[in-house]
From TrEMBL, chain A:
The keyword Transit peptide does not apply. GO terms for biological process: glycerol catabolic process; phosphoenolpyruvate-dependent sugar phosphotransferase system. GO terms for molecular function: phosphoenolpyruvate-glycerone phosphotransferase activity. GO terms for cellular component: membrane. Signal peptide: none annotated. It comes from Nonomuraea deserti. This is Phosphoenolpyruvate--protein phosphotransferase. Keywords: Pyruvate, Transferase. It comes from the Bacteria. Residues 1-124 form the PTS EIIA type-4 domain.
TrEMBL record, chain B:
NCBIfam families: dha_L_ycgS. Keywords: Kinase, Transferase. PANTHER family: TRIOKINASE/FMN CYCLASE, TRIOKINASE_FMN CYCLASE. GO terms for molecular function: glycerone kinase activity. Residues 4-202 form the DhaL domain. Transmembrane segments: none annotated. It comes from Nonomuraea deserti. This is Dihydroxyacetone kinase subunit L. GO terms for biological process: glycerol catabolic process.
Amino acid sequence: MVGLVLVSHSAGLAAEAVALAKGIAGAGVPVAAAGGTEDGGLGTSVDLVEAAVRGVDQGDGVVLIPDLGSSVLTARLLEEDGRIVVADVPFVEGAIAAAVAAGADAPLADVLASAEESRTFRKL
Amino acid sequence: MDTDLFVAWFEETARLVRRDRDRLTRLDAAIGDADHGTNLDRGLTEVRKALTEWPPESPVQVLTSAGTALIRRVGGASGPLYGSVFRQMGKALDSPVTLAGFSAAFDEGVVAVERLGKAAPGDKTMVDALAPASRALALAVRDGVGVREAFEQAARAAAEGARATIPMQARKGRASYLGERSIGHEDPGAASSALFMAALATVAS
């Protein structure tokens, strides 16, 4: 199964987004949170992101979903062609779309495409 | 240019950033999230620690070690950005280090940060100080001036580039959400980039 890492400036936001994605897509989907700095502040820690990637990597690839700013830059540093990819998508909607696709055993490219479709989701 | 000069470059940068920490944070408070001074100070403290605990044996090792420490410990956007400059510069640097080699490798570092941040000159970012510094180094190589003079010219170009961000409207980062209200403030990333180049000029003199 493709793994997902939700990278946010906030540990709480990342953890709750993971809970929401798993609640909708299923508890068995490998989704991990990497939020905030190591000392619990707002920001991004490459060590926390790397640890989260290791935790969800089952060999089928990993999609990183960052919120903004340093989360995006840190995620892009960890990209590996065809194995670890960054999704340029809305944080919550993209995470849920990707988690549902990953839970249906879609391959990496399809999980990424599902997440990217969420860019155009309209709410009204 | 030897390993000691590269170590001294980061030590002097750490000293300047510590000295100007509050000014950088004030600049960031105006248009950003008020953490640039403290973040960069923390990152450079970690760089000094890394260079002391694992003494580098070459300029390339200094750049790689410093870049990695900045990526791991800054916590804000400037960590991955400065980290990419120095790690890419380290990859591109030939040994022994000449001014021409330094200039070419530094330019590759600037290209790497432009690519990572998708920033161009005029966006009111650190690129507005780093790109003029890189151009100044390339001109110095072409004109055959000495290392000290070349680094002084690069430092002047970076300082002028940082000041030139004041009337710009931000197109990247948190400041870009402010639209026209970002005009009239110096970009904190460009200001800290000018400190890196000032430190280089100091240690070469």
